[in-house]
Amino acid sequence: MSFLSASLDRVKPSPTIAVTTKANELKAAGKDVIGLGAGEPDFDTPQNIKDAAKAAIDAGKTKYTPVDGIPELKRAICDKFKRENGLNYTPAQVSVGTGGKQTLYNALMATLNPGDEVIIPAPYWVSYPDMVLLAGGEPVAVACPMETGYKLTPEMLEAAITPKTKWLIFNSPSNPTGAGYSRDELKGLTDVLLRHPHVWVLTDDMYEHLVFDDFEFCTPAQVEPRLYDRTLTCNGVSKAYAMTGWRIGYAAGPVELIRAMGKIQSQSTSNPCSISQWAALEALTGPQDYIAESRVAFQRRRDLVVGMLNEAPGITCPVPEGAFYVYPSIAGCIGKTSAGGTVIADDEAFATALLEETGVAVVFGAAFGLSPAFRVSYATSDAALTEACTRIQTFCKGLK
């Protein structure tokens, strides 16, 4: 009998972390590598947020806090939801966790029983299916092809719902595609959900503020108030405020669910880092200039990457509405052979050959549940992106 839990057989390590780790190892070995795998802003945390953290340390705010967040931060989160999303929550309806991932994980652990199904539109963030599996549920991936803008349609959602469905995980703008749902598109989905009162909605709104052009962000409970009592609206400070390492995420929803999530957290990590909570309070209540400034930079980078990738033979790259990712199709590259002699049988082979032959690290599409494609994170410098895309163009031109 194995010493390790059988539950581990149901999951796999994060492919995005694996790609970043591999790129860093090659760099350490002296290789010329450009990593486009990491999903975090390359900008520093704004100074006012860092100053608030230092002030918290100097004030001795270094002790245990309430398990799921300090009252001041919970009130600020309620104010944020009211101000930006038109959603009314009380502090008792708010949970603060060690990153957005923990809030999602807590919700699934607190609600899933063996056989419960969770609908996950694909391409999806790599952690969604594995978190469902660890919690004992069954992920139901629904392929959303490039032809639908990588978005779930009402017809797809209707077809995926069964009596066993417990949750729909909804992520907009999306990691890995950057696809964002308009209010009308989202209304089509919420109309379906109204016909199935046993299905709850777990939103991942982490990229809410990273939207481009004239796109306007909206979230399910905002679009359809009748879903309020069966929606957990999740967000965090990681992407909007360049605070990935601070590890603060939050969620708001029905009190009974929030209490259950708190019970899970009380027996796992207990409270999130006290200093990070005070920093997050400043992020939500202090100056918001950084958001607009970073959005301008990310939109410029998006346009650069989309334009250059669409010039590479065999690649088709849609223009995303938000986040800092693109998800180009490589359907035109499949079956060809690279200049280094690798047969491009699938997108994993493409990504492997690209790294080995050009030093550009991307994440292959199969990791996100939809092939043949790959994900580029353009959260790096314009110069690095220009060089990386030039290498990708050269790689594709060398395919025979």
From TrEMBL:
Class in the EC hierarchy, top level: transferase
Pfam families in alphabetical order: Aminotran_1_2 (PF00155)
Keyword Chaperone attributed: no
Domain Aminotransferase class I/classII large: residue ranges: 31-392
Enzyme Commission code(s) on record: 2.6.1.-
Protein name: Aminotransferase
GO MF annotations, alphabetized: transaminase activity
SUPFAM superfamilies to which the protein is assigned, alphabetical: PLP-dependent transferases (SSF53383)
